[in-house]
Amino acid sequence: MAQSWTIEELADALRGHGDEFAVEAVGGDEPVLHVVMREHGDLAVFLSAAGDQIVVSTLLWPVDEQQDADAFNRFVLKAQKVVPLSNFAITEVDGRDYYELVGELAAQSPIEMIVLELRVLADNAISAADDLRTAFAA
């Protein structure tokens, strides 16, 4: 069985992908990588590796700015297929709730799969911001 990635190994591997990513380690109890997706409008994605999984996530927009948040939440939960391979969540940042898009992989995934997950998450976040949020703004 392949060995699980460490944050340091993931940072080095992502930096080895040319200029596609800017990667910075963020300290704390559990280290996280802040990955800037240069080919996706400098979208900020966060990557953590713990136990058996790698989690990638990006903040979308504040929940309190979503028109008819209850209807939006019901739609997203019923139609999760609108963002394949990613899941919506709500997370609190500095006392404010934000919509978040999350993807998960096995901790032993090859770097090519991790890069693909980062790209898919970024594409899905842009689509969600462009299509879903707009659909509920009317």
Provide structural commentary.
- InterPro entries: DUF2170.
- This is Sensory transduction regulator.
- Pfam families: DUF2170.
- The protein is an alpha+beta fold.
- The chain has one domain: 2-Layer Sandwich (Yope Regulator, Chain: A), CATH 3.30.1460.
- It has three helices and six strands, in the order αββββαββα.
- A six-stranded antiparallel β-sheet has the order 1-2-3-4-6-5.
- Strand 3 and strand 4 form a beta hairpin.
- It is globular, with a radius of gyration of 15 Å.
- It starts with 6 loop residues before the first helix and ends with a helix.
- The mean pLDDT is 90.
The helix/strand order is HEEEEHEEH
Number of discrete domains: 1
Q: Which sheet architecture does the biggest sheet show? A: 6 strands, antiparallel
Query: In which order are the strands of the major sheet placed?
Result: 1-2-3-4-6-5
Number of strands: 6
Task: Specify the number of helices.
Answer: 3
Annotated CATH topology: Yope Regulator, Chain: A
Which CATH C-level class is it? Answer: Alpha Beta
Given helix and strand content, the structural type is alpha+beta
Strand content: 25-35%
**Radius of gyration based on Cα positions:** 15 Å
Quaternary structure classification: single chain
Second-tier CATH architecture: 2-Layer Sandwich
What is the global morphology? Answer: globular
Low-confidence stretches: none
Relative helix content:
25-40%
Question: What is the arithmetic mean of pLDDT?
Answer: 90
Protein name: Sensory transduction regulator
Organism: Sphingomonas rubra
